[in-house]
Every structure is written in C-alpha cells, then in structure tokens.
Specification:
heterodimer, A: 508 residues, alpha/beta, Rossmann fold, 6-stranded mixed beta sheet, 22 strands, 26% strand, globular, B: 310 residues, mainly alpha, ABC transporter involved in vitamin B12 uptake, BtuC, two-stranded antiparallel sheet, 2 strands, 2% strand, binds adenosine-5'-triphosphate, binds magnesium ion
C-alpha cells in the first residue's frame, strides 16, 4: 500500500446563517484517490460545508488547504482554479442551452470566437475517457435527469477538476443509473481524483465509500474507515440512536375503489402527451406506489387528479362520480388532497410563516374568520395543535417557512393536507432528500392515513420507500403504465428495468 | 406616389428609426445580462443634452458623441449599483432613473435651448453605393451615426451568438447561479452590459440632438425610450429583429407627417398616437403566445442574484 496524499483539508470551518449555525468548527481531510462520504441528518450542514469548499458560501472563520497550500475560495471561479468542481443538489445548468454550450461556457480560453466544433470534439474525448455518454447537441430541457447529471460531471471534468463534490447525486437516478455513476466515481478515484459524496442512503455508503465523515447539527461526530463500521453504527452516529424503518403493509384489507382513471390522456407544458391513455384505480385504505424516473408522466398524473391540469381525453371518477371537468376547489371539497413535489413553490408560500401556511386552505371557514377579518388567536391555537401533533420543529412561529429544513417543510405540508381528513391523498416525492428520521415520521403519517381509510397515491423515485410502503406499485415509463406489481412478488431490479422501459405483462 | 417619393419616405423612416435602434440595441445587451433597465428614456435625454453641450463647447460632434455615451453609461451605472449591488427592485430603480434623467436633462439643458449647433453630423453619401438605384438614396446617403447603427447590428448579433463572452452573457441572463458555478464573473458581466446599454441609449439620445434635430429641446425624446423598451420584447432580444422593429416604429412616426403633406385628412393627434398604439399591440401579441414553450426572454430578467441565497 502506498500512502495517499491529502488533497483537501478544511480546518475549523464555521458558518452561520442569520441565527442558524450551519457549520460549527468543522475540520475534515480528504485524500486524493479516495471516495469520501459525508453523512448526516437534514440540516446537519453537509451542503453548507461543500458549498464553502466550492466557493459558493464564504465561511465566517476557518482555513482551507488544497494539496497542502492555503487558499482563499472567494468564488466558484477561484475554486475551479484550484481544481474543485461541485455537482449541486439542484443542477446548475442553463436549460435553454445545449449540452455543449453548458460545458463550454465560462471556460478560461481567451479566444474571442466561439468554436463549437472544436469544443464538441474535446467534450467527446473527455466523455469517452470516463464512459459518460451524452449528446453534445441536445438541449438540456430535452434530456433526462440522469443525462443532465452526466453533463454536470462532464462539465467539471472538462474544466480540469480533480476534486469532485457530489451532493445527493443518486436521489434522482434509477438503481441501474446509480450503479453507472458509482462506476464512474471509482474510475475517477483510481485516476487520483478526490471524490466527496453526500448521500442519505446507507446501502450506497457501504458500497462506494472508502472513508466516512458524519456530521450532526453542524459539527463533526467522527471520521471512520468503511471497513470499521456497519449500517447500524453509522445511523447511530447520525441520529444518536438506532433507527428502524417501518413497513406500511398493515393488515387492513383495501376496500372499494375510490378513485378511478379511465384511459386518461394529458399534455405536458410543452404540449406533448405526458400520459397516453392510462387506466388505474386506487382503493380505500390502499397505498398505490408510482415508480418511474422523474419526467415520465408522474407530475402530470398528480396534477390531473388534483385538477391543476386538463385531461385531453378519458375520465376521472371519484366514488363513481365523474369529476373530470371539476375545478380544483370542487375537488378539494369532495375530499381530494394534493401534496406537490415542489414543497416551497407550489406546496407552501415561502415568505409566509407557518401559521399562515397551515390555514392556507381553511382561512375562509367560520372557525378562522369573520367576514373579511381573520381570527388570529384561533389560527395560532390551531397551528400550535398541529405543530405538536405532527412534531414539527419550529424555532419561531413568525419567521418565513423558507428557512425550515426539508423534513419539517414536508411535515408542515402534510399536516395541512391531512388535517382535512381527505378521502384521496396524492403525494409527490414526499421523502425526497429527507434523512432517515424525517422519513420515518412521514411514513408514520401516511400509514396513519391509510389506516383511517384514505386512498393514497404515493409517487416516488426511491424504490426502497416504494417497497416498504406500497400495497401495489405501478411503474411509469414514457407516459404509460409498464405494469402494476405487488412488492412481495417482485424485486428492486425488476422494477428498475421497467422504469427504463421494459414491459411486464400481467397485472397485480 | 412616384418612386422618388417612396425613397424619400423610406430614407426618412431610417432616420426616424435610428435613435430607437440605438436604444433598443443597448437594452438588448442589458436585458441579456438579466437586468431590466426602464431608465432608457432618462438615459437618452441625458445623453442628448451631454452630447449637445459638448458639441457646442468643443465644436466637434464626435466629442459630443463620446460624451453622450459616457453620460448614458454613467446613468446606467446608478441603476447597476441599485439593481446589482444593492439588489433593489429593478422596476422601481429604472423608473426612478427615467424621472431623474428627465429632470436632470431639463436642468442642464436650460441654457442650450435655442442654441444652434455649428457642426452637426451631416449627410455623407458613400461613394459608389450612394449611386445604386433605389438602395442608394434609401440607405447610403445618411450621416455617420446612421452608418454606425448599420454596423452595430451585425456586430452585436455576432457578439451575442458567436463569441465566448456572448455565451457567458447569455448564461448570466438565463441562470446566474449556473453561470457562477461555471466560473463566470456574474457581477462583472452584469455591470459591463448595463454600462454598454446606457452608453447606447446615450448614443440614441445624441442622435436626436446632434443629427436629427439638431438642437436641444426639453424632453426631446418624446417617449422613444419607452418604445425601445417595448421593442426589445417585440424583437425577442434579437438585434436583427430590433433593426426591423425600429424601422417599423420610425415609419409610423413619420407617416403622420407625410400623410398631412399629401393632404390626407387625419387628425394629427391620431397619427402621433400610432407608434404608441402599435407598442401596446406588440406587447399584447408578443406576451400572449399560447405555448410556454416559446423562449420568452432571459430567465433571470429582473431577478437580483445573490450567491448565498437559497
Ligand atoms: N442559504 C441559506 N440561507 C439560510 N439558511 C441556510 C442556507 N443554507 C443552509 N441554511 C441552513 O443551514 C442549516 C444547514 O443546512 P444544509 O443545507 O447545509 O444541510 P444539509 O446537511 O445539506 O441537509 P440536507 O440533507 O437536507 O440537504 C439548515 O438549518 C439550513 O436551514
Ligand atoms: Mg443538502
């Protein structure tokens, strides 16, 4: 064994946002040629630390050494110059640009003229070297999330980065795509790159990590070699106690069909068919999981049920009543609730406080208003109750919800929707980006609703979550249902293949 | 109407369209960087008065032109400071700039009202080209500033679409965070193009006071700055379409005058209204396209960028 050189050393880094301490005296060392995983609950400060390393955030204090030399990373540009490239949780790509334009933009090359041909040739070289297939001439909005991620990786490699940061890269990938990504990461590590990886999935950690640093509440709990730990130990380090994931398959037998989609066709924003005449039904007390790579019609499915999108063709029935033409408002009154994937955009109003968000759908009712005036004290009381019941962590009842962590945002949103005791609950990616503890409480919440007799449509790209919770799983690909399976009669691999378009005959 | 009357009208159309063209080209550069500057009218006025006074004092219209660009650019930097550095509302700051520029130009220009310019830009025919049938009298018997505008259109088009800095500019306007992550200096890109936008607006103003009139009148832009702002949308942020649009507006502008000369009985107020009516129509049509699929301008337009934002 030869000794690996330290590529990155961050010393005593602290960073505070307003009154939140995101990083508290964090020190970490990453060697060239290793895959180093950062682990921690939501809000532990992982993204903050990596944003500091990539020049996006300026630390309040602390020092950074790259290959032994002290550096001031005042901008992403400076970080890139030091060979640091980051693939962010939300991709930093220009959607209206082509793949090649995204990779080439911002390059140090001093030539005035933009030589796309030469650029594309170079991109092809790098993409072959690492086995990252992309079409340089395709537009970003045309390609899948997995491809977009490859573009992001190529972009930083093209810029010559040898320190690579990936923030929850597998959250949006199929198992097969994730496997491909790990292959690439291993290849890069072998070439001497330092790879920093953030993930919530312990299976992945055990698969690719060489070294693991666990953060909790902004501080380092410890740095360990993978060989010295197991999943149980890691989750203990993360949350300070053991965790278990429940399964949703409690023994209530689903009742009659509540919601039926009958050959429904829907267009997406671009005017292309996103759902091509699909038929599915959900029963009382059932959780129907919807699997699929994002962008295969799931969003449109949720929106057409909620009434936010028009069905071009087909019918939607609720308890046998045709609701295809009804407005969102009418559907809410008939007991349909929708929890959108975009927590802060569509789900909650970012600039309003938690009380206002919690009563957003009910402030008109006599309980909360008289004429044009709101009964503030009643609203506060009801909010307190909900916050307690759903165990939402809030530091301040009056600060805008945009400063809350992902898990707490999701709980707030679900609390609002569920307090209506809906008959049908449509949830899109409710556990995306959530840590194990937050995930547990969301699962509990959903199971509670299922027990109550609610029909739940559970859209997710997290196959583990789908298998744990769903009574049946419908796999979507290209706007069609590739098959409906019972989790106990299939496995993750089969569903993963169906998510990429292989069809399964026979319906569960 | 005989052919010489038509060439006269077309030639006048180009002259009337030129100040709008300068300002619109400038606003295109500014907006491509994601910054909306509604201060065009104000910057044009300040450019007009700065150019005129410099030309009177030095006797050189060229020095006037440079001074107009610097004045317009400086005005724009005020907007840049408010919109980029302080991240205040671009709409409010731009409107304030127009009000400020209107007042400032009126104040500075008081003593130049009625003063005549000894050496304005004069028409120079371009050898050979000026003798082309039809094209010659329409395009090649103008003053130097018109020729500058002819050159600027393809130059700016090439800059935006075929150069590296142009690509970086577009990236900043579409998604400053992505541009930042790619190592582009967002701050500098925005300031530079806001400045250039102001300089071009100043040039548009100077065209009125140094060539079109040539004299200084209070409020002499008469809404052309606003037309330029609307034109940018009509032109879909494309310099070539801005050229076309400017001449359409220029044509409408002089149409009223010409119709009266020809003895057509149309109320003059109605004719004066035409360019503005057309502006409203263009805005309605260009913003009501049904599909969201159509590119509708730089993605981050009017949105201030702050790196540590969530
Ligand atoms: N730009 C910001 N403005 C204000 N507060 C922020 C900002 N970025 C992070 N925070 C706060 O800092 C804390 C740490 O956030 P960070 O995003 O680093 O967590 P994380 O470990 O990446 O969590 P997750 O697993 O949810 O991605 C959180 O409390 C968060 O609310
Ligand atoms: Mg994060």
């Amino acid at each position: 064994m030869f000794v690996l050189k330290v590529a990155v050393e961050m010393k005593n880094i602290s960073k505070t946002f307003a009154d939140v301490v995101a990083n508290n005296d964090v020190s970490i060392k990453v060697k060239a040629g290793e895959i180093h995983v950062l682990l921690g609950e939501n809000g532990a400060g992982k993204s903050t630390l990596m944003n500091i390393l990539s020049g996006f955030y300026t630390p309040d204090s602390g020092e950074i050494f790259i290959h032994g030399k002290k550096v001031e990373l005042t901008s992403p540009r400076e970080a890139l110059k030091c060979g640091i490239g980051m693939i962010h949780q939300h991709f930093k790509l220009v959607n209206s640009f082509t793949v090649a334009e995204n990779i080439i933009m911002g390059n140090g090359n001093s030539a005035l003229r933009l030589d796309m041909k030469a650029g594309i040739e170079e991109i092809k070289k790098v993409s072959q070297e690492y086995g990252l297939q992309v079409d340089p001439k395709a537009y970003i909005w045309q390609i899948s999330v997995g491809e977009q991620q490859r573009v992001e990786i190529l972009k930083v490699l093209y810029k010559g980065a040898d320190i690579l940061i990936l923030d929850e890269p597998t959250a949006v990938l199929t198992p097969q795509e994730a496997e491909g990504l790990f292959e690439t990461l291993r290849k890069m590590a072998k070439k001497g790159c330092a790879v920093l990886l953030i993930t919530h999935k312990l299976d992945e950690v055990m698969e690719v990590a060489d070294t693991i640093t666990v953060l909790r509440k902004g501080s380092v709990v410890g740095t360990v070699n993978k060989a010295d730990v197991d999943k149980r130990k890691l989750s203990e380090m993360m949350v300070g106690r053991e965790t278990f994931l429940r399964t949703g398959k409690i023994d209530n037998h689903p009742g009659e069909e509540l919601l039926t989609l009958d050959r429904v066709t829907v267009l997406n924003d671009k005017g292309i068919k996103a759902l091509k005449g699909i038929s599915i039904g959900i029963r009382r007390g059932e959780i129907l999981g919807i699997a699929g790579v994002a962008g295969n019609g799931q969003k449109e499915l949720a929106e057409v049920i909620a009434g936010l999108r028009k069905a071009e063709d087909g019918r939607i029935l609720l308890r046998g009543e045709n609701i295809t033409g009804l407005s969102v408002f009418d559907r809410i009154n008939r007991g349909i609730s929708y929890v959108p994937e975009d927590r802060l955009g569509k789900g909650l109003v970012p600039g309003m406080n938690i009380q206002e968000n919690l009563v957003l759908k009910k402030y008109r009712s006599a309980a909360f208003s008289r004429g044009a005036f709101l009964k503030i004290s009643k609203i506060r009381e009801a909010s307190r109750e909900m916050i307690e019941k759903f165990d939402i962590q809030v530091s301040d009842m009056y600060s805008p919800v945009k400063f809350m962590s992902g898990g707490n945002l999701q709980k707030t949103l679900l609390a609002r929707e569920v307090s209506d005791t809906p008959d049908v609950l449509v949830t899109s990616y409710p556990v995306r980006g959530l840590d194990i503890k937050a995930m547990e409480s969301i699962y509990d919440l959903l199971i509670e609703q299922k027990r109550r007799g609610c029909a739940i449509l559970f859209i997710s790209e997290d196959l583990d979550a789908l298998f744990q919770l769903s009574d049946r799983i419908a796999v979507f690909y290209g706007g069609q249902v590739m098959g409906v399976l019972r989790p106990e009669q299939t496995d993750i691999n089969e569903v993963g293949l169906m998510m990429m378009g292989s069809k399964k005959t026979g319906v569960a | 109407m005989n052919s010489s009357a038509i060439t006269v009208i077309l030639s006048a159309t180009i002259i009337a369209g030129t100040p709008i063209l300068f300002a619109a080209l400038g606003e295109i550069l500014t907006e491509r960087a994601g910054v909306l500057n509604l201060g065009v009218e104000g910057m044009m006025l300040v450019g007009a008065v700065a150019g005129f006074s410099t030309a009177v004092l030095t006797g050189s219209p060229w020095l006037g032109l440079i001074s107009a660009m610097l004045a317009g650019g400086t005005m724009a930097l005020i907007h840049g400071f408010l919109a980029i550095s302080l991240r205040s509302s671009q709409v409010v700051s731009g409107l304030a700039l127009t009000i400020f520029g209107t007042g400032l130009s009126g104040f500075l220009g008081k003593r130049y009202i009625g003063v005549s310019l000894k050496a304005p830009f004069v028409k120079i025919g371009i050898p050979l080209l000026k003798d082309l049938p039809f094209l010659g009298p329409v395009f090649f018997r103008h003053d130097a500033m018109v020729y500058i505008s002819f050159l600027l259109v393809p130059v700016i088009w090439y800059y935006i679409n075929r150069t590296r800095p142009g690509l970086n500019l577009k990236a900043v306007g579409e998604n400053p965070s992505a541009a930042d992550a790619a190592g582009i200096n967002v701050f500098r890109t925005q300031y530079l193009h806001v400045f250039l936008g102001g300089a071009l607006a100043g040039l548009g103003g100077a065209y009125l006071s140094l060539a079109y009139a040539p004299s200084w009148l209070e409020n002499m832009t008469a809404g052309r700055g606003w037309i330029a702002v609307a034109l940018v949308i009509f032109a879909a942020w494309d310099p070539l379409k801005a050229l076309l649009g400017s001449y359409i507006f220029g044509g409408l502008d002089i149409l009223g005058f010409r119709l009266q000369v020809l003895g057509v009985m149309v109320p003059s107020f109605f004719l004066k209204m035409l360019p503005y009516l057309f502006t409203v129509l263009v805005l309605v049509i260009s913003t009501s396209r049904r599909s969201k699929y159509v590119w509708s301008g730089p993605g981050s337009l009017t949105k201030p960028y702050y790196r540590e934002d969530r």
